[in-house]
Amino acid sequence: MPTFRAPVQDTLFVLNDVLGYERYSNLAGFSDASPDVLEAILAEGAKLAENVMHPLNRVGDMEGCVRNDDGSVTTPKGFKEAFDQYREGGWMGLAVPVEHGGQGLPYTVHSAVGEYMSAANMALMMYPGLTQGAMAAILVHGSDEQKATWLPKMVEGAWTGTMNLTEPHCGTDLGLLRSKAVPNGDGSYRISGQKIFISAGEHDMSDNIIHLVLARIEGAPEGVKGISLFIVPKFKLDASGNPGARNAVSCGSIEEKMGIHGNSTCVMNYDEAEGFLIGEANGGLKAMFTMMNEARLGVGLQGLAVSEIAYQNAVAYAKDRIQGRSLTGPKAPDKKADPIIVHPDIRRKLMTMKAFNEAGRALVLWTAINSDVAHRSEDGAERQAADDHMGLMTPVVKGVLTDKGFEHAVMAQQVFGGHGYIEEHGMSQFVRDARIAMIYEGANGVQALDLVGRKLGLNGGRAVQAFFKEVGEFCEANRGDEQMAPYTKALKKGLNDLQAATMWLVQNGMANPDNAGAASTDYMHLFGLVALGYMWGRMAKTAQDKLATGANGSADFYETKLVTGRYFMERVMPETSAHLARLSTGSATMMALAAEAF
Amino acid sequence: MPTFRAPVQDTLFVLNDVLGYERYSNLAGFSDASPDVLEAILAEGAKLAENVMHPLNRVGDMEGCVRNDDGSVTTPKGFKEAFDQYREGGWMGLAVPVEHGGQGLPYTVHSAVGEYMSAANMALMMYPGLTQGAMAAILVHGSDEQKATWLPKMVEGAWTGTMNLTEPHCGTDLGLLRSKAVPNGDGSYRISGQKIFISAGEHDMSDNIIHLVLARIEGAPEGVKGISLFIVPKFKLDASGNPGARNAVSCGSIEEKMGIHGNSTCVMNYDEAEGFLIGEANGGLKAMFTMMNEARLGVGLQGLAVSEIAYQNAVAYAKDRIQGRSLTGPKAPDKKADPIIVHPDIRRKLMTMKAFNEAGRALVLWTAINSDVAHRSEDGAERQAADDHMGLMTPVVKGVLTDKGFEHAVMAQQVFGGHGYIEEHGMSQFVRDARIAMIYEGANGVQALDLVGRKLGLNGGRAVQAFFKEVGEFCEANRGDEQMAPYTKALKKGLNDLQAATMWLVQNGMANPDNAGAASTDYMHLFGLVALGYMWGRMAKTAQDKLATGANGSADFYETKLVTGRYFMERVMPETSAHLARLSTGSATMMALAAEAF
């Protein structure tokens, strides 16, 4: 059975020491989560994740969700009780503004705890996770009345939410969607159509389910310009605002999936269900992106989270399993063989995962802090810069952390040899669960295109230039520091590759957009490496400073950081040149064949 | 539902045109498989794979194998009947010498057909696949009597075979194994112990199961020098050589696995079962490697096979699914959207898989021809060179084709978006099935160590030098050829990287073997890229010659080859520099942390 320990010390290192969490105490909510409180919240979240969520992870995988004949869905044993503890602990509304019943704490804290929860039980955490996305849409685009009607119960966790975008014939290309909305004349609409792949679409964990549904108002323009977003509750509300009559929305079936069995992925049928327009008519895409951006960061976090728990279990196995002898002579001569952690190729796997997880965590938290600044700062320039950063990093966090998260789940499974392929060890579940994160909320190819086709050029490239400047200045500022050389040299080399790739895109992507598409995935990963490398640069700098000024008994911790960061520079960063070389070859060969030639 | 079409034309191109199959007509068996006969055999094998094996692939995944209360195992519906057709078609003994009841045809032909079969139904094909390994051990190490006793029925397929190596506490490190053998005094032994992960260990598809079991004869030395190999039949033979009384070997349970559900992976319990020593006492490791080398090539073939079928289905989906518009303007203006094959990032995936599959097929067939030469040539020098090649390429074929095969199954699944994550489309099965190939018959880390630690230095590096020479001469011979420049330049660059990496290993691996271990996986993949790149060089040369001398109506086929090869050079080969850069950093950082620091 897998185990899990929330990496609290590491989160605190990143927040307090690397990112200077205290510097943000002027932002709303931050003063309520002072470093002491922060530590207490993380410890509490860790306990819930480790002791309540994690023990149900394998149960969820084995039992899955069951659709009953009446269309109701039964979730795995224990899921409802665990979710009860989650909502009673106030985790659902942690970062929701106080005026809507939340605690108004930083989104950063929500993200930090979110990693632990998703690592412990990704499928279970999708129920509250989707609710976060739905709440975000209502918060941003809902009328005051809608906020008052729907949010408090969602913040409580008494009601959960979903996002209904995909239809059988359309996912990425929402312009094709057919679900339709007919006005009732009283401000409400009748929604009809079929949605598929609806996570947490139907289940037994909450008193009501608030579906946010994309549909086309009768007579609306074709394409994405004719899409609107609707609130469609499972149960209509009675006069006092409580769940009353059943709405005409039902779960037609649940999908048999590769993983996340504990989450009910539903085909949802809308048959003139009562719905309420949220935001402007035909402005659904914008509202959808509010949910989506929230969700994309959450999915990136899932990639990191599964990578972390898979890594932890690979480490435990590598220390425990004895097999063969170290190439440099026995390390455990009292035993019949050495633990496999002595073998370089096992180390390579563990170090690769460790170096990624720690930088990935820093990248997520850095982006989360920027989200808080973007939403809460009173300084317009600061807000803009933070918002730029968020927009730029969202596809990188989603695309890179989930691609790598999956890769590392596979790597961790490999450490187990044949035992990794057997379901009872749980490593297969990590791989199967992690796989979806590369697909949903915009497949990673779509993230890459978002980065290259939209985010790069936005506002004349303001966001990307700011990022280059920051990384460049970091390298420059530490240029004279001998001890920092292993980090800054590799980072600078990566940055050069990224800038060259950007220049290539500018020069070749305009003339032929296929060049941009052909470069996109390599560019996104190149970008991710530089962002993660920069996180390592900053973490190394912090660790070095701590060691120089007195490590307070944590010298081992900081020394380990320095080694892990060096590993990242030596073994992971070289990939930047391969990405640059590949993307520079353009689209001509890639696009040369006729479809029939495949 | 997935579909499958055996790539017969491509196999013929590689064998006839690239590798010059006819040149080997002097070898035993080759004259019986003249180009005409070869084509007929491939067509026949393709039919069986497409029409009989493939339709059962998903059935096998869904039903899995069931162990009944009496210890018997029921295979999925239809498996036995399909296997009946396989054995009745004579496929089991295709390459087995005529004197043992086989057809004595080239191993090359067996491999070519094997790809189709494994692509069509990997789990089903493991039953005959393991039998091939068991037969190889008996053929090479068995006494004449043993050959006469066991082989004919196995060649017929009336009996199947297994390989029993792994025990709960030992897989890679067979020196730890505990199963024991006590002499009965009459030449037979009593075998006791527990074996795990035994593929095809118990099932209902054959009249007897011939287990080849590693065990330690009482009083034998510790470690691998005290291991012997035994034949342990499920049913003892009666006086007339037919299955009689049940032997004391039984299936204790079957494993619940991530994939290959159609194959029964058993815990086998030996309780003083009657067994017969094969080969010399304490010489089991050598005999084991005979099975293992055979099996490793077979597993590499599985990697390629799953990559091929996954690719084919991704292509079909990419042509059929409409979503979004081409970045360069609508390509199917009559439809509401373009087929997704117009999108560069989808192309990138398809081209990557296609370019790999075609080179992988060439590499497998080239190695298979070398196997035939090594076993059948009358020229000692030729035999030695071919055997060198086989030894060198075995870990590369196993390690690289299975790592990449899995990666491509994942890539093909990604083309399907959310639909790829749903079991009904079958893409998940390809991923789950392909995953095991990276693990069994020696995890890929062990393959890399075999390459770096054993094969490179063997006979003063004779094998690797011959390979470098051949590739170098190919580049040199085509240096003046303008049209070949895109291929030879990239290949030469890759070869230079590989030679630099080899030099680095020579200089650093001796002094500190951890450097070799730390470099091993990168080195193996670097080696694989050059080997695959060389295959592309030769395929491009052949295609170009064909086009120049009259393509006989196949101009499109050859043009497509040239484009696909160019893609490989542009987009896949750049990885060689990253491998070199990584491995050149050595083991110091990787090994620096104490185990507790993880």
From TrEMBL, chains A, B:
Classification via InterPro entries: Acyl-CoA_dh-like_C_dom (IPR025878), Acyl-CoA_Oxase/DH_mid-dom (IPR006091), Acyl-CoA_Oxase/DH_mid-dom_sf (IPR046373), AcylCo_DH-like_C (IPR036250), AcylCo_DH/oxidase_C (IPR009075), AcylCoA_DH/ox_N (IPR013786), AcylCoA_DH/ox_N_sf (IPR037069), AcylCoA_DH/oxidase_NM_dom_sf (IPR009100)
Boundaries of every Acyl-CoA dehydrogenase/oxidase C-terminal domain copy: 282-450
Tagged with keyword DNA repair: no
Top-level enzyme category: oxidoreductase
Catalytic activity: 3-(methylsulfanyl)propanoyl-CoA + oxidized [electron-transfer flavoprotein] + H(+) = 3-(methylsulfanyl)acryloyl-CoA + reduced [electron-transfer flavoprotein]
Cofactors named for this entry: FAD
Keyword terms: FAD, Flavoprotein, Oxidoreductase
Domain Acyl-CoA dehydrogenase/oxidase N-terminal as annotated: residue spans: 80-157
GO molecular function, one term: flavin adenine dinucleotide binding
Domain Acetyl-CoA dehydrogenase-like C-terminal: 467-593
SUPFAM superfamilies reported in the protein's UniProt record: Acyl-CoA dehydrogenase C-terminal domain-like (SSF47203), Acyl-CoA dehydrogenase NM domain-like (SSF56645)
E.C. number: 1.3.99.41
Domain Acyl-CoA oxidase/dehydrogenase middle: 163-271
UniProt keyword annotation of Oxidoreductase present: yes
Recorded family membership: Belongs to the acyl-CoA dehydrogenase family.
Job of this protein: Involved in the assimilation of dimethylsulphoniopropionate (DMSP), an important compound in the fixation of carbon in marine phytoplankton, by mediating the conversion of 3-(methylthio)propanoyl-CoA (MMPA-CoA) to 3-(methylthio)acryloyl-CoA (MTA-CoA).
Name under which the protein is recorded: 3-methylmercaptopropionyl-CoA dehydrogenase
Organism listed in the record: Aminobacter anthyllidis
